[in-house]
Amino acid sequence: MIKTPDTIHNLRDVNAASPTEDDVLTYNAVTKLWGAEAAAGGGAGDMTKAVYDIDADGVVDNSEKLEASTKAQVQDHAPKAHASSHEDVGADEISVAGLTGLLATAQTPAAHTHVEADVTDLDHNAQKIKSKTVDAPQVADDGKFLQYDHANSKFVLTAGGGGADYPMKLKPDLTRWVMPGWYSQGYITVAAYAGNIYYLPIFVSETTTYIAIGINVATAKAGTADLRIFNWSDGVPGSLVLNAGTVDTGTTGVKEINISQQLARGYYFLAVRCSGSPSLRGLDKAKPVAPPVSGINTVTTYPDAPNVILIVSAAYADPAPAPTAINTVYYAFVHLREN
Q1: Distance of alpha carbon 180 from the chain centroid
Q2: What is the pTM of this model?
């Protein structure tokens, strides 16, 4: 009867002084002993490489699950249709949250709306309204409004005024001296006092390039008349548009200065300041006259409002010296020439 050994060390033909976990016994034909060695592949069992990894690539060649399909065939396999439960409102609907990349087929967004606060980084052209240009660089301030300039196919900022707005004007092929926005039927002779600036409000109905500015001297006085154009600034003269220069008032007649000044649609002031005190041709308030602004009366004695010419006794400056007085159309002295 053979006694069962208590440990592996009791076997005479086993040389395994210090075996480790999962070692296997391997017979050595030279030493005629069994020795402890680490198991090949780090495991045990009856799956041999010669059977299951014939091409020695470290991957099991086939299995029942692959049903003899190759790796390439598995990779190229067309997926089956997804269950309807994955569809919208299905039992296990697929959430798109966290998905990245583009969908294979372009998707048409569903109709939706946004509140103003949701819209950011808006790419727009502030210089366009319905593809029509908004004139720039004009300053938007109180009393101005956008109007369409038909002749130049653009919107312009226009200073508000009290007169009627006639968007069209006569353009006969004739010499045209004008007070833009005005109609009058008579003139009068009145003294222009030395040192006074007389501001004449005008309304340019469409963008126009003026070629001359002038006055008519009825009674000569040694000296000069300084002619300028100022922007409209909330009902009073503002920044300087043009310093046209001076004309001699020492002789009578029409005194003009050639200019090339484009004025966009809107309100402006024509101005004259004399160094002497010549008598100039102004408008006769006793005859029909229609200014482009509402008249003013500084007292309540009379129920009329004949005053539209702003006046100040001062030297020219930029911006214009603020007016301190107002008077009638008698002092509407300055004209512009269109052609």
Answers
A1: 34
A2: 0.56
